[in-house]
Design a protein that fits this description.
Blueprint: E1 6-9, E2 18-26, H1 31-43, E3 50-61, H2 63-78, E4 82-86, H3 90-98, E5 107-108, H4 111-116
Parallel strand pairs: 2-3, 3-4, 4-5
Antiparallel strand pairs: 1-2
Domain STAS: 7-118
Family: Belongs to the anti-sigma-factor antagonist family.
InterPro entries: Anti-sigma_ant (IPR003658), MlaB-like_STAS (IPR058548), STAS_dom (IPR002645), STAS_dom_sf (IPR036513)
């Protein structure tokens, strides 16, 4: 059994977005926890309905975890907000690029650049 995912949701929005910090492994056994946390945010959105997911401490993610990011991004966008990924480890950066997720979900080198939006710090 691998390290479970730890999800920390910021108490108050930073830069207009709620920061969700992930640590551990996000996979078939743990993606439901993230989906539930994001669902709670989407049911009770902040005024801008913006979410930044901090990947700094996420060591592993499988296809189920990646699809959780895509689904939440689509739902945020449909309500006028966004979901962005931030600060991926080298493994996660490579994974996001290989599967082409950065073409669908904005990803940034740092949490600060994700909060700022725009093109500076955006990963391709």
């Amino acid at each position: 059994m691998g390290v479970l995912v730890r999800i920390t949701v910021a108490e108050s929005p930073a830069g207009g977005a709620t920061v969700v910090k992930l640590a551990g492994e996000l996979g078939v056994d743990t993606a439901g926890e993230l989906a539930a946390a994001l669902e709670k945010l989407l049911r009770h959105p902040n005024p801008t309905n913006r979410i930044v997911i901090d990947l700094t401490l996420l060591g592993f993610c499988d296809s189920i975890g990646l699809s959780t990011f895509v689904d939440a991004h689509r739902r945020c966008a449909a309500s006028g907000g966004y979901l962005a990924l931030a600060a991926p480890s080298p493994f996660m950066h490579k994974l996001l690029g290989v599967v082409g997720l950065t073409r669908q979900v904005p990803a940034y080198a740092t949490v600060a650049s994700a909060l700022a939006g725009g093109e500076e710090g955006r990963l391709r």
